[in-house]
Design goal:
Subcellular location: Cell outer membrane
Distance between the termini: 63 Å
Radius of gyration: 40 Å
Structural class: alpha+beta
CATH class of one domain: Mainly Alpha
CATH architecture of one domain: Up-down Bundle
Helix content: 55-70%
Organism: Leptospira ognonensis
GO molecular function: efflux transmembrane transporter activity; porin activity
Number of helices: 10
Keywords: Cell outer membrane, Membrane, Transmembrane, Transmembrane beta strand
Shape: elongated
InterPro entries: TolC-like
Strand order of the largest sheet: 1-2-3-4-5-6
Length: 492
């Protein structure tokens, strides 16, 4: 009789883990994978992502990129930079000017009109112009240039800087700065996304970990509940003292408290995750338990973490490096403007004109005119001040750039060390759980044979659950460390 009771109780006490997690909708074919009581489940991420209805990390990160408000707000910075670039391009817009003059009274009565278009270009600072003017009536000798033949005069020409404004001028400087600002806006979006993805990934694994904790405590509670009725039967048969029933009841109350806490933590983790999981219109989505993955991905092999290669990737991809380099480029533009302002202005003005229609024979032939404009600054305090300030700023940025590279190097070393250490912790915690589980099963068999007490069995079960929780915590820390490593090398 005692042997039959032992077999019956053993078959009940060792409850498949998947049966106790029915709300997670696990495929019945996979239930054998959950036979270990209150233990975490470790699968490859490919397998996790293939489970129907499961919220994958990729889905979460896609939601962050498409619907997260701060990302959408940051993208407006890029739109603003695009419009600022368009405004800077406006310095090279085609301009039309016109002036008309009439003198109806006086000794010299005349009418004149002068219209022309001007096109600044970034081609060496050269500006082109073309125009038409016509003058009718009597003009004094000193104002004879306003007089034209009957059909007016057509003219065209160019202003070509030969020294100052040849390599750079204010318009081209503003355009270059606007282009740099556009790239800086893109980098600011990248920096924000990296931080958001890292935080979203951490919250995702926190949600997965609390889900595993929830199952551990649910399993632990169910064991005590199933055992309660069987203990009462054994007390009636005289196999156990009455105190064992009270002790099991105490264990149930203790485990109910743990379960309620785990349930609250799971709900809190889901709420925290909803900040990043959103509908396309931005509405928050709180994932339910049915969307929990069945476990964690496998740990990262330390052999895949090469420090030198990781550092090269970080220097190449980290937006902070590019941000500092673009800021240097922007200051270099101001320095170039200072050097440009210190140069003498030497401009070549070339113009050709042709009058049409009846009129003076002196205006009948085409004319070509060339002028040289010279402007030499006698004092250069403004350019020298601009150059000095720019050089000082560049020196400052160089130091900050070097510090940023040093900081990234320490982050790479630290995150790789963290990934390796947490991976070792996972292996140790797994071994601890397996040993605790084995001891628990042996202790339960001793209890059935009358060689142990329920108090010791409860302690063994509690120890096993604590080992399981430590393994889950180690897995969470490991995958959080992996997220930190990916953020350090900007590989998201």
């Amino acid at each position: 009789m005692l042997k039959k009771s032992f077999i019956f109780l053993k078959s009940i006490f060792i409850i498949p883990f998947g049966i106790l997690a029915g709300e997670f909708e696990i495929d019945p074919i996979q239930k054998s994978d959950f036979d270990n009581l209150h233990g975490p489940n470790i699968y490859s991420e490919d397998y996790i992502n293939k489970q129907p209805g499961v919220l994958s990390l990729a889905e979460l990160l896609k939601s962050v990129e498409k619907s997260y408000p701060l990302v959408l707000a940051a993208e407006k910075l890029l739109t603003e930079a695009e419009y600022n670039y368009l405004a800077a391009e406006g310095a090279f817009d085609l301009q039309f000017r016109s002036i008309g003059t009439t003198k109806p009274l006086g000794f010299y009565q005349n009418n004149a009109s002068d219209s022309f278009i001007e096109k600044p270009t970034p081609l060496g600072g050269t500006s082109f112009f073309a125009g038409y003017r016509i003058g009718r009536g009597n003009f004094p000798a000193y104002d004879g240039r306003r007089e034209t033949n009957d059909l007016g005069e057509v003219r065209a020409g160019a202003l070509i800087p030969l020294f100052r404004n040849q390599q750079i001028d204010k318009n081209r400087a503003d355009l270059r700065k606007a282009e740099i600002d556009r790239k800086l806006a893109e980098l600011s979006i990248q920096k924000l996304k990296i931080e958001l993805i890292r935080e979203a990934t951490r919250r995702y694994w926190k949600w997965v970990a609390t889900g595993q904790d929830y199952l551990v405590y649910k399993d632990l509670l169910e064991i005590a509940r199933v055992r309660e009725g069987q203990i009462i039967d054994r007390i009636k048969l005289g196999d156990l003292p009455k105190i064992e029933s009270s002790d099991n009841r105490r264990a149930i109350l203790q485990r109910e408290s743990q379960f309620v806490t785990a349930e609250r933590e799971l709900h809190k983790a889901a709420i925290d995750l909803s900040l990043f999981l959103r509908e396309p219109d931005g509405k928050l989505i709180t994932p339910n338990n049915n969307r929990l993955p069945i476990g964690f991905p496998k740990t990262v092999d330390p052999k895949e973490l090469d420090i030198e290669l990781s550092l090269k990737k970080a220097i190449k991809n980290r937006p902070e490096i590019k941000d500092m380099e673009f800021k240097r480029d922007k200051v270099s533009v101001d320095r170039d403007l200072g050097y440009n302002a210190a140069k003498p202005q030497v401009d070549l003005l070339v113009a050709a004109s042709q009058d049409f229609g009846p009129g003076s024979i002196t205006r009948a032939k085409p004319e070509l005119e060339a002028s040289l404009v010279l402007n030499v600054p006698l004092q250069t305090r403004r350019p020298r001040g601009l150059i000095g300030a720019s050089e000082a700023k560049l020196s400052q940025l160089d130091q900050e750039l070097q510090f940023t590279k040093d900081k990234i190097q320490t982050e790479i070393h630290d995150t790789i060390s963290e990934v390796i250490a947490t991976g070792k912790r996972v292996a140790i915690a797994k071994s601890e759980f397996e040993l605790a589980k084995k001891l628990e099963e042996l202790e339960r068999e001793r209890f059935f044979l009358g060689d142990s007490t329920l108090l010791i069995v409860n302690i063994r079960e509690q120890t096993t659950s604590e080992a399981a929780i430590r393994e889950i915590k180690a897995l969470f820390d490991h995958h959080t460390a992996v997220a930190n490593y990916k953020a350090a090398i900007a590989s998201f």
